[in-house]
Specification:
Agmatine deiminase; hydrolase; 3-stranded mixed β-sheet; protein-arginine deiminase activity; alpha/beta
Amino acid sequence: MPQHAVERFPAEWESQSAVLIAWPHADTDWADRLGEVEETYIALVAALVRYTRVIVCVADEDLQTYAEARLRSARVDLSRVRFVEVEYDDTWLRDSGPITLRTPDGFRLLDFRFTGWGGKFEASRDDQLIERLVEQGVFENAERTSIDFALEGGAIETDGAGTLLTTWKCLHERHPESDRASLDARLKEWLRQDRVLWLDHGYLEGDDTDAHIDTLARLAPDDAIVFQACDDPSDSHYAELGAMADEIAALRTKDGKPYRLFPLPWARPVLDEGRRLAASYANYLIIDGAVLMPAYGDPADPAAAAVLGTAYPGREIVQVPCRPLIWQNGSLHCITMQLPQGLVR
């Protein structure tokens, strides 16, 4: 029996045991706006503990004491929060955290190389994060597999049933020497997928991930795709996101049917000293019983929540204020990594 028949990459909407995050501190890229981003992290943890447990990476004991105090003052239920002391360069755990496969005996933690999005930033400590978490005993019944290949969790989406969605721009940027056929074969083998759907269009200004799929389009239950649309012809994204929408509309399920499509509204431009920031509603996190949605204080926030409510029936849509996050070119999904049910004691 082929190995991929007994190992599976679960979808994000499947049952979970916890969500993994890392607390920002003065030695991360958040130093200049630490107070603002801490408010987002407090709101995030407060929302998470209503539905699941949270594992919070902290750089040292002092940071844990500080984070506990901030959360306690916000009346967050700390009985559902576990702190783990570990070194990290930054807090984008979607990209440095484990990509988890279910196996007959437990789990396989895929530890791909993390290069700071193609060498843009220092990432040596982030690249060792999964190994350090394993050493700390965070995971149960899990085997770590190191893979000498640069891949970030934000670059891939799965439906849990053998379909992977990704962007050619990101994978080609990381591996310019590889053609699509070879990348396709590697992804299918490592991630136990039957097929890979590639998008050739889609980008956001202010995004330094080279078009991660989780800022653009997300697979959703029952053969659906939720994607970031742009309805403003005067916006610089209009043509490219329109071309992406056409690509998505042309995709087919394994049964040869069109996907059910859920376009997300477009937030007004957010500028920081003239620099456009990537305010994507597609960067949401699915957890047991809820979808946590990035909110930007924009008139489109309620409309985005309504779309997600339709795409994820039966889950509460919880808005988390994420405007501080896009200053560093990411959002809610980028700072979190869900851990499947049974992976954490």
